[in-house]
């Protein structure tokens, strides 16, 4: 019995997913042609993948560089408490800061990793001083400025 994550899905499903990752707005008839199915069968497979939660939704891929600015930083955050209430308070407040594109709890010698986008370093300094450093239960931070994005 196969135990890998793909065992429930056949090659057609994986091919459909591959094409939808590249273009979530692809017309069903074109997708069907690309994977070798009838439009009806293709639509049924896509619906099944949606119902199973494999396809969570469809979204636009935004060029954050053009929209939010070219300066990107990663911020390591060490908490002064990792109790459930402290983590919940931090999570709730970090969600309110639009410049923080991503926030991940990390199993390391720090607690969170934030991806922050700003127009420039002056803007980042303002975001850091006014928003990030005032987050609840933050003990220490370290900022890493991105020089070049090799792969997003």
UniProtKB/TrEMBL annotation:
PROSITE patterns: HTH_ASNC_2 (PS50956). Pfam families: AsnC_trans_reg, HTH_24. SMART domains: HTH_ASNC. Signal peptide: none annotated. InterPro entries: AsnC-type_HTH_dom, Dimeric_a/b-barrel, Tscrpt_reg_AsnC-like, Tscrpt_reg_AsnC/Lrp_C, WH-like_DNA-bd_sf, WH_DNA-bd_sf. GO terms for molecular function: sequence-specific DNA binding. GO terms for cellular component: cytosol. Keywords: Activator, DNA-binding, Transcription, Transcription regulation. GO terms for biological process: alanine catabolic process; response to L-leucine. Residues 11-71 form the HTH asnC-type domain. PANTHER family: LEUCINE-RESPONSIVE REGULATORY PROTEIN. This is ArsR family transcriptional regulator.
């Amino acid at each position: 019995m196969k135990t890998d994550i793909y065992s429930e899905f056949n090659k057609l499903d994986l091919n459909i997913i591959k094409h939808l990752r590249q273009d979530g707005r692809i017309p069903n008839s074109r997708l069907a042609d690309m994977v070798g199915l009838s439009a009806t069968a293709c639509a049924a497979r896509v619906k099944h993948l949606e119902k199973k939660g494999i396809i969570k939704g469809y979204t636009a891929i935004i060029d954050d560089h053009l929209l939010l600015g070219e300066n990107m930083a990663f911020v390591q955050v060490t908490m002064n408490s990792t109790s459930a209430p402290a983590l919940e308070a931090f999570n709730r407040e970090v969600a309110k800061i639009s410049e923080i594109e991503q926030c991940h709890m990390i199993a390391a010698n720090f607690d969170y990793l934030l991806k922050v986008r700003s127009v420039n370093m002056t803007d980042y300094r303002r975001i850091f001083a006014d928003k990030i450093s005032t987050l609840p239960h933050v003990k220490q931070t370290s900022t890493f400025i991105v020089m070049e994005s090799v792969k997003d």
